[in-house]
Design brief:
- By secondary structure, the chain is an alpha+beta fold.
- It contains 5 helices and 8 strands, in the order ααββββββααβαβ.
- 19% of the residues lie in helices and 20% in strands.
- A hairpin with a 7-residue loop joins strand 1 and strand 2.
């Protein structure tokens, strides 16, 4: 179970009502879900909590685009984290996950050379030469979160199609319909007479 400090600070009522669909990062709206976060912008972060931890906010339905050149000089003591907010098809929040950026980069480098230290430095040098160029690397976040559960810290998840439940139950499980013999109805018998043995369907007239 997640022990991340952001998990216990989620304002569930705000989460249910906030609209973060459409274009743009919607950083202000997402920050409003976490009372202990304040807006503070830097090269690789958008918010900061009361203890000085910083977060870069990303929201998307699944496919997220990154600029790898931004992460070429991460240090071992870097404590900036990604705050990923995933939306369902109705633009409602159905998953929030956090991960230190340096851990995310290590994971991505293990599956894509573009995220290796050499690849990040090349992207940075290219960006310096061509400042108007936008470098974008696609990542299927939902797939990565499912594939690497020990890397990502999921602090909120909801069942698609259901509203958020109790305030103290941030992780919900699907409800199974109860089976009841009293409520079950017997199958309705067919009104068509049973076909006689040996007789097939009548031949079509040409």
């Amino acid at each position: 179970m997640s022990k991340h400090p952001l998990k216990t600070s989620i304002d569930i009522d705000k989460l249910r009502s906030v609209n973060i669909g459409g274009r743009g990062g919607k950083e202000a709206e997402i920050i409003s879900i976490f009372p202990n976060l304040v807006r503070k912008s830097g090269s690789i972060y958008d918010a900061e909590d009361k203890d000085g931890a910083r977060y870069e906010i990303k929201k998307q339905k699944g496919l997220q685009w990154f600029d790898p050149s931004k992460y070429h000089n991460l240090t071992e003591d870097s404590k900036v984290e990604f705050l990923f907010v995933l939306l369902d098809k109705n633009n409602r929040i159905d998953k929030i996950a956090v991960v230190p950026i340096r851990e995310f980069v290590r994971m991505m480098a293990s599956v894509n050379p573009q995220w290796s230290l050499g690849g990040l430095r090349k992207a940075h040098e290219y960006k310096k030469l061509y400042k108007q160029t936008q470098l974008k690397a696609p990542v299927k976040l939902r797939d990565m979160i499912d594939k690497y559960p020990t890397v990502f810290d999921v602090i909120f998840t909801s069942v698609p199609g259901e509203s958020v439940g109790r305030r103290d139950a941030l992780k919900l499980k699907p409800r199974r319909p109860a089976k009841s013999a009293q409520n079950s109805r017997p199958p309705t018998p067919s009104r068509r007479p049973a076909a006689q043995a040996g007789r097939g369907a009548p031949a079509r007239r040409s």
